[in-house]
Amino acid sequence: GYEDAEFRVSRHPGFWPYAKSVLDIEKDDFTRREWNLDSIELPEAREDEPFLRRLRTSLSRDQITNDVKERVIHSYGKGFRDLFRMRHGIAAGAPDLIVYPESENDVCLTLRAAAERDIVLIPFGGGSNIAGCVERMDARRMCVSLDMRRMRRVLAVDRRSCTAQIEAGVFGPDL
Fold this sequence. Notes:
The chain has 175 residues and is an alpha/beta fold. The strands form two sheets. A four-stranded mixed sheet has the order 1-2-4-3, with helices on one face. It has a two-stranded antiparallel ribbon with strand order 5-6. A hairpin with a 4-residue loop joins strand 5 and strand 6. It is built from five helices and six strands, in the order H-H-E-H-H-E-H-E-E-E-E.
């Protein structure tokens, strides 16, 4: 969605009664909570030093981060369930590390290193999380969010067959 778009409940009087019935919520006196990075319950980031050493041999410093804000951003998506958890300070699904590949070689290096160290990799595209695919399911193993946003190039276009080869990080509106 667009950042400047908003939903006004006052224009949809049936929405809240419907949402309450579907979500099995009884009360409706919720106070609006302002999002604050300091209020998020973030688990301690796990580090696997051999994995990090392997990444650092080929990736630049700005391609690897365990910055708190980035971990929070990559915890969940933009769906109602995800935003509700964030508004309530819940980020139990936060990855331990975020990697920003810039090429197919970067992706392959990260995949191989993760496989060798039994590390969970979660691809992160637009971050909508419509199907729940950016959520961490295994809290026992180190988890890495593989953010594809730096891979946004159109590599080839075949006009005859109307197909194209495009990197995984391109957003639909940009395409």
